[in-house]
């Protein structure tokens, strides 16, 4: 392993120590491997010219703005770390600018569409159908709390305060927050815990809220497929768990919730990140106006 590859591994290790999410570290690892491979091929050192050369090569190959922005962020973090640790005389990444991304409005399911999903699931969530009981629990919790699917997968039984209808989740950067949930979600959780989970539980099962049919903790992939299957049966079309998160935030604002409360619920570090949902609400209002007003 070359010296620069050793430094790359040190950098990735300190990301883990800082609590950076596994998927983020994997993306950094992939991006930096590609960058170091480019350096080796072109026999260049780490400087502004070599970084731009690497990015221009990807641009010529048809890389999207989102891909270029992510790779720019990866290499900027790496050069900043090298500079902070006196491994570079200056930080070339500080002069890089990420491509400005076109930010589409998030996909949101209508309240009517989701009501149809919940009514259908309640009909199938019988005592002898643990899969349906868990599906209803998953859909109700994701929509009630706006939590991320990875946060849901990580919930343990002792994270739930049934008396106060609160649930503790661990988000990005290992930050924890308490989320309220309503009566419908509480009923779905109770039914799953009393009638569904015991049918999947094994002696070796973890203390996880959600268990697979084999008794292990349910993974993010399985949860994604579960939600996507339900939303595919609605006018929303192809969508995943993040659509429920978007829908929860948008519907909260539609019904008068404060933007800062939505920020806290979603676990956004910045209020600006949450503000996109105000645009979604405005667009929904505009669409209703144009459809209903006689002089629109």
* Rg over alpha carbons: 23 Å
Strand content: under 5%
CATH level 4 superfamily of the largest domain: Intergrase catalytic core
User: Low-confidence segments, ≥5 residues, pLDDT <50?
Assistant: none
Secondary-structure content class: mainly alpha
**Largest sheet descriptor:** 3 strands, antiparallel
E-strand count: 3
Taken in chain order, the helices and strands follow as HHHHHHHEEEHHHHHH
- In spatial order, strands of the major sheet run 1-2-3
The CATH topology of the largest domain is what?
hpI Integrase, Chain A
Question: How many H/I helices?
Answer: 13
**Average pLDDT level:** 87
The N- to C-terminal Cα distance equals: 66 Å
- The coarse overall form would be elongated
Estimate nothing, just give the exact number of structural domains.
2
Percentage of residues in helical conformation: 55-70%
Can you walk through the features of this model?
The protein is mainly α. The chain has 2 domains: 3-95, DNA polymerase, domain 1, CATH 1.10.150.130; 111-292, hpI Integrase, Chain A. Helix content is 60%, strand content 4%. The chain contains 13 helices and 3 strands, in the order H-H-H-H-H-H-H-E-E-E-H-H-H-H-H-H. A 3-stranded antiparallel beta sheet has the order 1-2-3, with no helix packed on it. Helix 1 (3-17) packs antiparallel against helix 2 (22-42). The longest helix is centred in the N-terminal third of the chain and has 21 residues, at 22-42.
């Amino acid at each position: 392993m070359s010296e620069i590859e050793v430094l790359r591994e040190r950098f990735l290790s300190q990301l883990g120590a800082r609590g950076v999410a596994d998927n983020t570290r994997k993306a950094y690892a992939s991006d930096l491997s590609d960058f170091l491979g480019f350096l080796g091929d072109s026999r260049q050192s780490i400087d502004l010219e070599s970084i731009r050369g690497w990015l221009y090569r990807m641009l010529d190959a048809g890389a999207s703005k989102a891909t270029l922005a992510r790779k720019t962020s990866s290499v900027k973090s790496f050069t900043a770390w090298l500079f902070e640790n006196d491994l570079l005389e200056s930080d070339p990444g500080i002069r890089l600018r990420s491509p400005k991304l076109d930010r589409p409005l998030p996909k949101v399911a209508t309240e009517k569409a989701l009501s149809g999903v919940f009514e259908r699931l309640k009909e199938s969530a019988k005592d002898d159908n643990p899969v349906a009981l868990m599906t209803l629990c998953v859909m109700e919790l994701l929509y009630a709390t706006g939590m991320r699917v990875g946060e849901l997968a990580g919930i343990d039984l002792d994270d739930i305060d049934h008396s106060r209808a609160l649930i503790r989740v661990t988000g990005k950067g290992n930050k924890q927050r308490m989320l309220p949930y309503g009566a419908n979600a509480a009923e779905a959780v109770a039914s799953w815990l009393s009638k569904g989970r015991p049918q999947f539980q094994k002696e070796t099962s973890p203390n996880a809220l959600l268990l697979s049919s084999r008794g292990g903790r349910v993974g993010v992939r399985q949860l994604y497929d579960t939600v996507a299957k339900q939303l595919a049966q609605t006018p929303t079309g192809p969508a995943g768990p993040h659509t429920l998160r978007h829908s929860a935030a948008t519907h909260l604002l539609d019904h008068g919730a404060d933007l800062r409360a939505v920020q806290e619920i979603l676990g956004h570090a910045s209020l600006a990140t949450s503000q996109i949902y105000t645009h979604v609400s405005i667009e929904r209002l505009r669409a209703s106006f144009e459809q209903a007003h006689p002089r629109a």
